[in-house]
Amino acid sequence: MRRASIKDIARIAGVSVATVSYVLNKKEGQRISEDTKKKIFEIAETINYVPNRIARSLQNNRTKLLGLIVADISNDFYSSIARHLEDKAIKLGYTLIIGSSDENAQKFSKLIELFSQQQVDGMIVAPVAGSEDILQKLMDKNYPLVTIDRYLKGVNIPGVLLNNREIAENTTSFLVEKDFEQIIYVGYDTKLPHLLDRQYGFETTIAESGKNIRTKNILVGLENITLEIQTKLEEALGKNPKNTALYFSSNKLAVAGLAYLVQNNVNVPEQVSVLAFDETEAYKLFPAEITYIKQPLEEMADEAVKFLDSQINQYSSKTKKITLSGELIIKKSIK
Amino acid sequence: MRRASIKDIARIAGVSVATVSYVLNKKEGQRISEDTKKKIFEIAETINYVPNRIARSLQNNRTKLLGLIVADISNDFYSSIARHLEDKAIKLGYTLIIGSSDENAQKFSKLIELFSQQQVDGMIVAPVAGSEDILQKLMDKNYPLVTIDRYLKGVNIPGVLLNNREIAENTTSFLVEKDFEQIIYVGYDTKLPHLLDRQYGFETTIAESGKNIRTKNILVGLENITLEIQTKLEEALGKNPKNTALYFSSNKLAVAGLAYLVQNNVNVPEQVSVLAFDETEAYKLFPAEITYIKQPLEEMADEAVKFLDSQINQYSSKTKKITLSGELIIKKSIK
DNA sequence: CTGAAAGCGCTTACAG
DNA sequence: CTGAAAGCGCTTACAG
User: Fold this and answer.
1) Does the N-terminal peptide bond of residue B51 adopt cis geometry, omega within 30 degrees of 0?
2) Per residue in B182-192, pLDDT tens?
3) Is B52 within 8 Å of A255 when comparing Cβ atoms?
4) What is the pLDDT of residue A112?
5) Which residues make Cβ contacts (< 8 Å) with residue A151, sequence separation at least 6?
6) What residues have CB less than 8 Å from A18, skipping those under 6 apart?
7) CA torsion angle for B275, B279, B284, B288 (degrees, to 10)?
8) pLDDT grade, residue B318 (50/70/90)?
């Protein structure tokens, strides 16, 4: 069934398509008689007219589509931020189209290609390792682009970021003052700068504390996180750990690690204290509610969309990076 | 910066746009010299040509966009299914555009409107209460449409569903055989048929068991789930519950309920046994890993996209509903 | 083997 | 107050 077009309305109303277009878009300037307006609106209503944005897009070079590329939309962190992005985008008249990269530069690149073909007005991306060139190309074309959560070395892309290094330092200091014998950092074996910032923040703070704290990094790959963490934690903690703290650098890692702790009846915080990056509902089900670093997701989303919108509409803006602060939410998991 | 078009390639190559179009789309039938082909591909490469799908869409009435409306993309269940839908959609050449309805018929309706304007080729929706008319209209226009997770009374929309009633009956039987004194159903105060199916399945199975089991429904609204569940559970369980089972009809409800149990040191399964609908990573952090009903999300997503694709391409199909089976994953939370 | 031309459904500068 | 017409970037039936 062919869908009603502006032409149909024009024919029925006995006016030109131009007139219909003016009326439906409520253009001022053009003065059109109230009678004609009323007639046109009525006809549009009765024939169930839905404007074809595709046609409009072709004309004015704006699709009102925003591309969002995350690592994995089924990850709590990204689905939460996606939700906030969606809300903000809708407010500004945009719709979100989404894709998951799985930390794979090739998939990432295909999504970028796909989204450009779909003529999205701009993209919000969590860039993966190895996507520098692809993104640089996009920048060279002046394609509106904002990174979230992450940034890349060697390419200066507008982005909304967490103060990773700083918050890692502050929260590590917080642990250092508790006089643990051992503090273990659980992170990814990665080249992503924002994660390395967390790691370096942790390492330097421990080193500079002047205290005699045993420390260790457990770094895992992307595959089989759960299994890898469990074996490495087992090795690191031994049978009867005490006076130890675990510093998880993401919610995924924390969930995997906490599952190990609960299964092995490790007492938190009596034996092992826990601090984790990112929020997840799951923390509430653990016997000791988890102390975590909360990222201001809503604010990040707001800033990212606003930032992108300003690029799209060429509001001049010299800003390149927006850095927001994490917050330590202290619960029962640290003694 | 204007983006390169087919016209640019034609001008540079000294051929017509028609020829360029044929070559780039690898149309058979038209025989074009290898030389010309090669030249065109090279030029496309060097001027960084990206086809404008919008223009193509206008021509052939296909955007390769699929609309997805869920209740809330930040909910584990929906973000997981979204991920599977994304994967399947990409395989078939579609991109997903997403929206969250928040169980609000008006928001839902706005999203439908928005997506139609964007000319999506079809929609996959988790319909909300009160959206019958909107969806019926869409059906009347022959708009390709598939519901997931839910269905509505009084309007016959193609859909992919779980065998809610049946799996509720089977799993309730499983509990009944354990001879609990009390079994409490924790669900939503809702009109959504798929949730009522779960509730009725539970209720009738208990009633028909012939056993003398105390039972009770805790039904909560959508606002303040956590608070409402906690107060109602407190009331229902008392200080020292025993030989009791809780039947949670969704992951959200389960998470809220389990948070209450863990905070109040209720022993699972010694005092209270737990069974829940849906999967979530969170279950792993609870002291007793949770027995849950696993929905075949990947299969659902596969079926939904295939189903929609067949509607879009008019492969005749008389199918109206596809029902898939849930599976009880038995863990430690039931004594 | 290749091109001229119409058309998809809109918008908009211009004319009257 | 309203319309004729060009054009956005493609596709495709048709002609040669």
Assistant:
1) no
2) 999 999 999 99
3) no
4) 97
5) A127, A157, A159, A161, A193, A194, A321
6) none
7) 10
8) low
A164-294 belongs to which homologous superfamily? Answer: Response regulator (3.40.50.2300)
Nearest residue on chain A to B290, alpha-carbon basis: A285
CATH of B164-295, one of 3.40.50.2300, 3.40.50.261, 3.40.50.970, 1.25.40.10: 3.40.50.2300
Domains of chain B, residue spans? 6-51, 63-162+298-325, 164-295
- Amino acid A35: pLDDT: 83
Distance from CA of A282 to the nearest CA of B (A): 4
Q: What residue type is assigned to position A133 of the chain?
A: D
Asked if strand D contacts B53 at the CB level, meaning under 7 A, the answer is: no
CA of B56 to C1' of C2 (A): 22
Closest residue to C3 (CA, C1′): B16
All residues of chain B having their beta carbon less than 8 Å from the beta carbon of residue A253 are none
Q: Which residues contact B31 (CB under 8 A, 6 or more apart)?
A: none
CATH 1.10.260.40 is right for the domain spanning A63-162+298-325: no
Whether nucleic acid strand D comes within 7 Å of the CB of A14, the answer is: yes
Distance (Å) of CA B302 to CA A96, B90, B126, B135, B307: 22, 11, 15, 22, 8
Please indicate if any CB of chain A lies within 8 Å of the CB of B77: no
The residues in B 110-129 lying below 8 A from A, measured between CB atoms, are 113-119
Q: Which nucleotides of D are covered by protein (CB under 7 A)?
A: 1-5, 7-14
By the CB < 8 Å criterion, does B314 face chain A?
no
**How many angstroms separate the CA of residue A213 from the nearest CA in chain B?**
28
Helix (H) or strand (E) holding B301: helix B297-312
Burial of B314 (0-12, 13-18, 19+ CB in 10 A): exposed
Mean pLDDT, rounded, for B222-227: 91
The predicted-structure confidence for A124-138, as pLDDT tens digits, reads as follows 999 999 999 999 999
The secondary structure of residue B74, as a DSSP letter, is T
Angle at alpha carbon of residue A121, lines to A120 and A124, rounded to 5°: 80
Q: How many residues appear in chain A? A: 335
Instruction: Say if A286 is an interface residue toward chain B (CB within 8 Å).
Output: yes
Whether the per-residue pLDDT at B324 is higher than 80: the answer is yes
Q: Does A3 touch chain B (CB under 8 A)?
A: yes
Closest residue to D11 (CA to C1') is B59
Amino acid at A238: G
- What was the pLDDT predicted at A1? 58
Answer yes or no: CATH 2.60.40.1180 is held by domain B6-51.
no
Digit-coded pLDDT (tens) for B68-89: 999 999 999 999 999 999 999 9
A3 neighbourhood in chain B, CB within 8 Å = 141
Q: Is the CB of B58 under 7 A from strand D?
A: yes
Query: What whole-number distance in Å separates Cα of residue B55 and Cα of residue A260?
Result: 53
- Render pLDDT for B129-163 as a digit per residue (tens, 0 to 9): 999 999 999 998 889 999 999 999 999 999 999 99
Q: What is the pLDDT of residue B191?
A: 94
Instruction: Show the DSSP H helices in chain A as ranges.
Output: 6-13, 17-24, 34-46, 53-60, 76-91, 105-117, 132-140, 164-176, 193-208, 225-237, 251-263, 297-312
Alpha-carbon distance B122 to B305, whole Å? 9
Sign of the torsion formed by the C-alpha atoms of A311, A317, A321 and A327: negative
Domains A63-162+298-325 and A164-294 share a fold: yes
Mutate to test the interface with B, among A74, A106, A248 (most CBs of B within 10 A): A74
CA–C1' distance A24–C12 (Å)? 14
